[in-house]
Amino acid sequence: MRLTLALAACLALLGACSNGEKTARYLIDPPSGGQRVADRLGTAELKDVSLPEYASGGEVSWQTADGAVRSNTKQLWADNPQRAFTLTLARTISDMSGATVIAEPWPLSEPPRRTLEVRVEKALAQADGVYRLSGRYFVGDSASGGANQARSFDISVPLGDEGPAAIARAQSLAIAQLAGQIATLSGPGRSIRTSATPMPRIDDIFSQPLPPLEGS
After folding, report:
1. What pTM was computed for the model?
2. For residue 72, which of 20, 12, 126, 25 has the smallest C-alpha distance?
3. What digits encode the pLDDT tens for the residues 8-23?
């Protein structure tokens, strides 16, 4: 009898643990129909966005009043955060500007004119009720005389509420703002022109024959 009761209790516990309805998953989904800007990127390959460790895990994270970053195993992102951030950012830039921005790997036979890299330093629902997205982005232009960009971003979106749903909404809005900044090549930083005559590679230098010795 005791064995039967113990087995029943174990089965009930396993059933509770495997109950998918107790796990909530949240999407990154910026609103459509936002701002429209001119196409300044043309074709660009977006490298996988670099995220902080706490933002790249499957759990939705937030900061508490003691400064700690916490999460809950029952409150998850619906997709891998890096993949979702990268794909969403590429799509949003394309939608608002008409540029062809595609997450790596580049699928078209014609190579892209530019490469785009985003390095996120902070992506966090802070204890002060603000979602903060900050970091740097880089646009590489391989064409002679092309404009390379090295710029920073620091975006703040009020959470307006508590909980993972509010965090997901704020992050989606922050990504939309970042997309607008990248599409217009704006933000603190500088533009660097691609040299018309690129510097020789180091292996090219050492592959050249040595000059003859004097008197030989």
Report:
1. 0.80
2. 25
3. 454 454 454 445 578 9
